[in-house]
Amino acid sequence: MKETNSLKSKKLFLLDMDGTVYEGARLFEGVNEFLDYVENSGGRYIFITNNSSRSVKDYVLRLKSMGVKVTEDNFFTSSQATALYLNEHHKNEKIYCMGTASMIEELKKMGVDVTTDKKDAECVVVGYDTELTYQKLIDVSYLLQTKKGIPYIATNPDRGCPTEFGLVPDCFAICEAINYATNRRPVYIGKPDRFMIDYAVKMSGFSKEEAVVVGDRLYTDIASGVNAGVDTICVLSGESTQKDIDESEIKPTFVLEDIKEILKALQE
Ligand SMILES: [Mg+2]
Q1: Å from CA of 120 to ligand 1 middle
Q2: Same domain, yes or no: 170 and 105
Q3: CA of 121: how far to CAs of 49, 64, 113, 251, in Å?
Q4: DSSP symbol at 72
């Protein structure tokens, strides 16, 4: 672990949301002060989220309702990352998407040719679909088995998504259900893959050394920073405990209690 003093050179903060800046509908103390400090010192913050059930527009509304000043430029979701991936690797293909209406809207906005017609489908994409129906599971199973070798992509490898009472099945859990039936597993795009971190750093104009990934999950947030060669802060306000960190092979650069403690370290 590095001394938190070296955090002062950081300009680009790539922030997770759930367990890092809020829990459910409760914004953590010190978030607005932290974001103001980053902006006033010439830095930038981008919320990097694996959650593909909401669009960027949804997130702007959600954070604004919690009293956080944000615009669409402050977000990068795994749906957007998946759209970039599809535009690079599956250009001009008709994409069958099993995801929320918000996810489909996001893909279309970024130029992906989304189809709901199984006949036309040349590629299958699965997201964290909170509007999932059994018919959708049948359709994806049909495509994966009748169109042998059809490309199969998923937005994020999270097992569960936190709610007020505990976890609910996220994208990985949905894809594992499909795997039991079809014996196919997708290529996953979101964290811990380095793609989202690399892309956000490149678009920001800051260097890797000036960037830091902040999150509460070792196997997604912290691993994505490690994979991209970017420093990381694990906050203890969400999923991971100090014991988890001690026992894990994935080691963050810094461990701090919460976002308020990060602000304190920057100001000291
Ligand atoms: Mg989180």
Answers
A1: 36
A2: yes
A3: 27, 37, 10, 41
A4: G
Structural domains in the chain (count): 2
Asked if residue 67 is part of any domain, the answer here is no
CA of 117 to the centre of ligand 1 (A): 34
Distance 111 CA to ligand 1 centre (A): 29
> 163 lies in which domain range?
91-188
* Maximal CA-CA distance, the chain: 61
Report the separation in Å between the CA atom of 193 and the middle of ligand 1, taken as the mean of its atom positions.
15
How far, in Å, is the centroid of ligand 1 from the Cα of 198?
A: 19
Alpha helices (H) along 67-211: 78-89, 101-109, 134-146, 171-182, 195-204
**Ligand 1 center from residue 143 Cα (angstroms):** 32
The residue from 135, 160, 188 where one domain ends is: 188
Residues 43 and 100 reside in one and the same domain: no
170, 188, 206: which is the final residue of a domain? 188
Find the 158 Cα to ligand 1 centroid distance in Å: 10
How far is the centre of ligand 1, averaged over its atoms, from the C-alpha of 17 (Å)?
Answer: 6
For the question of whether the overall pTM of this predicted structure is more than 0.90, the answer is yes
| Backbone dihedral angles phi then psi of residue 123, each to the nearest 5 degrees | -160, 145
What is the tens place of the pLDDT at every residue in 104-163? Answer: 999 999 999 999 889 999 999 999 999 999 999 999 999 999 999 999 999 999 999 988
Find the CATH number of the domain harbouring 24.
Answer: 3.40.50.1000
